[in-house]
Design brief:
eight-stranded antiparallel sheet; 312 residues; alpha+beta
Length: 312
């Protein structure tokens, strides 16, 4: 899977920020942050402050400041207080964060720069944290429920529309290529709800959810894609990446092995860092991971026999 941190920069964020500030909706109240739990956000002028809630994975007292930065238009630049794991890593540290506020989606997507060799139970892939407003969480749950209902029906629904489903699928794939994760999730869910039952739709949805750090949803959709196409190596690899976010080493390793045996190919230096950190942190997994990733590198050197990875 292509590294998010290598494709998104401060310049890219600023390029999409509107000039006017007055029309922006303030970031206030409880925002859901996936693995982290709930973060209470408040603004003081351009300053954004986030406080931990009860039950956060770092064991912080409720009300402890965890996010502090300046919100200029839609761009947030500041610091995120995180708990860290790893040899030589501090237990807690305030790390630089770059974020983008999307009032349309009701979300704040933030990227935290974490030092090499350290891990945090709070972070998703490549230091990704997505905070969603109650409105956004509710909308995502409703869309996911509609998609699941369509999946479980097992028969044609009166609202199915093959042409509209295909068009939504194509929009979802285009938005995925453009790294517009939120929009691609919406289009893939719409396509499935309208009757698109292909592995491509479930794979696209699961991949977009993975990039948005919606891990449990990503595992569900990627698993459905794999049931429809057990031989597609990209499904197995992305599912391995999803399991790695949940800390499930054995499942992640088995899926990586399955992907490589099916011909998964990847160029050296572009392997998924979350998967790599998880498996290299376990003495029992190091040899198996290294052997498989080296085989994936060899697959990339034989394009005539193997398909080369095209991860998101």
């Amino acid at each position: 899977m292509v590294s998010v941190s290598r494709t998104i920069s401060l310049a890219a964020f600023i390029a999409v920020v509107p000039g006017a500030r007055g029309a922006e909706l303030p970031l206030q109240g409880s925002y859901q942050a996936d693995i982290w739990g709930t973060v209470e956000l408040s603004t003081e002028g351009e300053r954004l402050i986030g406080r931990a809630s009860r039950g956060n994975p770092c064991g912080l007292e409720p009300g402890t400041p965890v996010l502090d930065g300046l919100l200029q238009g839609r761009v947030l630049v500041g610091q995120f207080e995180l708990c860290l794991q790893g040899e030589g890593c501090p237990e807690k540290q305030a790390l630089p964060v770059l974020g983008f506020h999307s009032p349309e989606e009701g979300s704040l997507t933030a990227y935290v720069r974490i030092q090499p060799g350290c891990l945090s139970p709070v972070l998703g892939q490549e230091g990704l944290v997505v905070l969603r407003s109650p409105r956004a969480v509710s909308a995502a749950q409703e869309a996911a429920a509609a998609a699941r209902a369509s999946l479980m029906s097992g028969r044609a629904a009166t609202r199915r529309n093959p042409e509209a489903a295909k068009a939504a699928l194509e929009r979802g794939e285009q938005l995925l290529r453009e790294k517009k994760w939120g929009g691609s999730v919406t289009e893939f869910e719409r396509s499935i709800a309208l009757g698109e039952q292909s592995w491509v739709a479930f794979f696209g949805l699961g991949t977009a959810q993975l990039m948005r750090n919606q891990i449990s949803e990503a595992v569900e959709m990627l698993s459905r894609a794999q049931k429809l196409n057990k031989r597609e190596p990209h499904i197995a690899y992305n599912l391995a990446c999803a399991y790695s976010r949940q800390g499930k080493k054995e499942q992640a390793l088995l899926l990586l092995e399955q992907a490589v045996k099916s011909g998964y190919a990847i160029k050296a230096g572009s392997q998924d860092l979350g998967l790599e950190k998880l498996l290299l942190s376990d003495p029992g997994s190091i040899a198996r991971y290294t052997e498989n990733i080296q085989e994936a590198f060899k697959n990339a050197e034989a394009p005539a026999r193997r398909r080369q990875a095209q991860g998101p």
